[in-house]
Amino acid sequence: MSIIEAEHRTALPPSIRVRLAGPRDCEALVALLDEPAHAREQVLTWLETPGTTLLVAQSEIGVLGVAVLLTRIMPKPGGGMHKVVEVDNLVVHPDQRGQRIGRRLLAAVVEWARQRRAAQVEAVVGEGDARRFYESFGFAAAADRLVLAA
Ligand SMILES: CC(C)(COP(=O)(O)OP(=O)(O)OC[C@H]1O[C@@H](n2cnc3c(N)ncnc32)[C@H](O)[C@@H]1OP(=O)(O)O)[C@@H](O)C(=O)NCCC(=O)NCCS
């Protein structure tokens, strides 16, 4: 690749739009995931499970990333119930990272959740790059969750 092409790619991220995924995206989604052996089963499960929504970042070259969302009705800390959207997975194609595609997908997730009157968007992550990605967007740790491994 020439220097001009390299600079061009850094300066201009691919023009993308975010849309809902469907069964015709199965192969592209499988290609995004790390473990080919389990990827197809995983993608089919996501596509078939009620309450699971897939948003994909699409450019002219194809699907560049996916956000897997779980929508739940949960007890509110102060009583009552509210709708929560959990980002179960968010993956950008390894060749396309660092171009704000993940951030763009996350912004679409928040917009999607707001349109459905969700009270909050959650992400469960350990320490590391993924945590920094969510924190850089504005996510903050909430101490009101008690969890028991099933
Ligand atoms: C995490 C991931 C989705 C980020 O996607 P991306 O398109 O490369 O991220 P963006 O370019 O939108 O980055 C947005 C911000 O997140 C932070 N960030 C992104 N990747 C980061 C990394 N590897 N380390 C630290 N911070 C990072 C930065 O603050 C960045 O802002 P900047 O560009 O001003 O530095 C991508 O690296 C990925 O698919 N990782 C493997 C799967 C994963 O860990 N997913 C998250 C848990 S579900």
Automatic annotation (TrEMBL):
<keyword id="KW-0012">Acyltransferase</keyword>
<protein>
    <recommendedName>
        <fullName>N-acetyltransferase domain-containing protein</fullName>
    </recommendedName>
</protein>
<keyword id="KW-0808">Transferase</keyword>
<dbReference type="InterPro" id="IPR050832">
    <property type="entry name" value="Bact_Acetyltransf"/>
</dbReference>
<dbReference type="Pfam" id="PF13508">
    <property type="entry name" value="Acetyltransf_7"/>
</dbReference>
<dbReference type="InterPro" id="IPR016181">
    <property type="entry name" value="Acyl_CoA_acyltransferase"/>
</dbReference>
<dbReference type="InterPro" id="IPR000182">
    <property type="entry name" value="GNAT_dom"/>
</dbReference>
<dbReference type="GO" id="GO:0016747">
    <property type="term" value="F:acyltransferase activity, transferring groups other than amino-acyl groups"/>
</dbReference>
<feature type="domain" description="N-acetyltransferase">
    <location>
        <begin position="16"/>
        <end position="150"/>
    </location>
</feature>
